[in-house]
Amino acid sequence: MGLKRPIVAGAIYIMSGQAISVNSLNIQAWVYPGQPACNAKNEYTDGRIIQVLKPEYFTVNETGILKRLNVAKAGCNAYSQKNIESIKSYSQQQFVTVSASASSMAVLASSVKKRANAIKKLISFIKKTNFTGIELDFEGFGNWTDDNYQNYKIFVNELGNALWSINAELMIDGPPISNETEQSYYKWHYEDFNSLPVNYIVVMAYDYQYNYGVGTPVAPNAWVTNIINYVKDRIEDINKIVIGIPSYGYHGITGSYKIKLDTFEQSKSYPGFSLAVQDPSSFEYFWQHENTTYFIQTSDSLNQKKALIEAAGIKHISVWHLGGNQWFL
Length: 329
Fold this sequence. Notes:
Its EC number is 3.2.-.-. Residues 34-329 form the GH18 domain. This is Sporulation-specific glycosylase ydhD. The protein is an alpha/beta fold. It is built from eleven helices and 14 strands. The chain has one domain: TIM Barrel (Alpha-Beta Barrel), CATH 3.20.20.80. The protein has helices spanning 40-44, 71-74, 81-89, 102-109, 112-129, 146-164, 180-183, 208-212, 221-232, 264-267, 299-311, and strands at residues 26-31, 52-60, 66-68, 93-100, 133-138, 169-174, 200-204, 241-246, 249-253, 260-262, 277-278, 285-289, 292-296, 316-322. Strand 12 (285-289) and strand 13 (292-296) form a beta hairpin.
């Protein structure tokens, strides 16, 4: 997954558990547990409007066990009572993010006992914190087998039903698929989740550079538009669709596939930063210095990307991530 800047005066304190309107655009933001995102709290408390905050407080380890990410080991934005109170004070809704690699997800989802234990822990967390719900950020989609995917859907069904029984919600994250060729890379099919107890489906419409190499944007506009159209054709309720967008940048040797992700604040220190120009195909800014290409997201990039997504009829956007990046103006 992939941050913010301009400040609007005045903090907004909103009680958790409020319903999110489907008649206006709603902004979600992920909160990465540690560095380089430790400025996240300063950002979400500066007055900017973020309806949904999504801190990562849990991960699944390689033995398939759900582990809580505490501040002492995972970093500044990880689980603590203080962080929970802050997140709830500055958002209408809160989803705790649970991360997992393909291999750790496979071990968890294949075990009835491990699924049950994970669900028990997550339900306990929701009851204790009164967060709105859980977000499953289980990635490495290209490495999933048929069995992995079937077991994942079983876990989604079990967790969703458990959450719905206590009036909580489930959000799941899926891969960027813009056409049948990209669909062939994945076992995942968006239409499979229409009948499962899922409130929101996040389409992570970024990371294009990993497939096409350094020198390409993080999220080209035509690709994002095709992703939206592809998903709209398969998810019956458009109000369940959340489009994930990047606020992060990256750099690397031009033409290579060795990529270093950057926050905007990190990018400012790189040679040639002041020479960045906008790429009209993505609204992102880029520059080259010697044999290295750099990409960044500015407030202008984010504003234009948001307008593109709104024009497609989407009401929910999730930004990866808070802490060191630009934000909407």
